[in-house]
């Protein structure tokens, strides 16, 4: 995910120190102008720090300063969590139970905001990536930390291969394919520009990446060769998602569009649209429906066979950052800058439940393949594992 643009949108109507604003503009222009040939990216780290400082400053603003409800929602801080009894903690895990919420485990260990989470296909391991430059692997049953993998700079995304043994991660223009058993890189790829998102093909042979340069690039994961470069977006490609049947690639962009590409030929099939930057994409398990979300605070469900919009889901009070479809196809999870995760009935479009617990923007959400757990990542530096049991009333 492009944290620069996402935070800019959620903070767009706020009054922030002029020096910070100028620094953001200067670094953004520099990042977009230069072609990176190495994974070095100190400018992004400086920029991330600027956003953190801006958030800290915003929480101390005079109460007389007027902002919209949407603006305020991006800056909810400590005090939101309800006190509960029976809390037990160690260095990495806190388990809480609330009659109004599913049981949740809070995993701590990252020293900066957590950008993305992904669950292995066997539902045993959670991977999290962070602005602290690390990937952490967690036992999803116990919540214990298994190991830490290191990049040199912010890690924007992680994606599991279907074999549950291989993980891909992106940091700037560097792509690393890891053997998670040994914790060693199998292959390191370098692009001419940076990437915001990564996804594997269902057969585990290819990687697709959404880029700073407005393209989607497809790599052969075994040989490390670039296979395709898909062009058509007029702004950065912030998300890319491979359909479960392997036939179609979807990409979301700052140009407010979703583009669908033939995964074999690389040809553009169709273009769909939002009224804001598209950050979230998720395919239904049967590959017939695509869910998309944007900074306009909505989620759209599209019938891919007819190109028609099925329904628009509304309820979040701020930008919707990420989406995850349940393995049984019945429920969609969405994360937002309003600090919540919402669960939606995909057949009716009705809101089932709102999960509260994070103290800041929720940047990523993922569903385990066994349908039992939702993982979420936040700018509050934590990961939450939600025990969702649809045989019981949530």
Would you summarize the structure shown here?
The chain has 394 residues and is mostly beta strands. The protein contains four helices and 30 strands. A hairpin with a 5-residue loop joins strand 16 and strand 17.
Strand content range: 35-45%
- The strand count comes to 30
Distance between the termini: 30 Å
Principal-axis shape equals globular
- The number of helical runs is 4
What percentage of residues falls in helices of 4 or more residues?
10-25%
Low-confidence stretches: 12-91
Q: What structural category characterises the helix and strand content?
A: mainly beta
Q: Give the strand order of the largest sheet, numbering strands 1, 2, ... along the chain.
A: 1-2-3-30-29-28
Q: Mind telling me the C-alpha Rg?
A: 19 Å
Mean pLDDT across every amino acid position: 81
Quaternary assembly: single chain
Q: How would you sum up the major sheet?
A: 6 strands, antiparallel
Keywords:
394 residues; mainly beta; 6-stranded antiparallel sheet; 4 helices; 44% strand
Any overview of this molecule?
It is globular, with a radius of gyration of 19 Å. The longest helix is centred in the first third of the chain and has 17 residues, at 42-58. It has a six-stranded antiparallel sheet, with no helix packed on it. The protein has a four-stranded antiparallel sheet with strand order 4-5-6-7, with no helix packed on it. A four-stranded antiparallel sheet has the order 8-9-10-11, with no helix packed on it. It is built from four helices and 30 strands. It has helices at residues 3-10, 18-33, 42-58, 69-73, and strands at 88-89, 93-98, 101-107, 114-119, 125-130, 134-139, 145-150, 157-160, 166-171, 174-179, 184-190, 195-200, 206-211, 216-220, 226-230, 237-242, 248-253, 257-262, 268-273, 278-283, 289-294, 298-303, 308-314, 320-325, 331-336, 341-345, 351-355, 362-367, 373-378, 383-387. It is mainly beta.
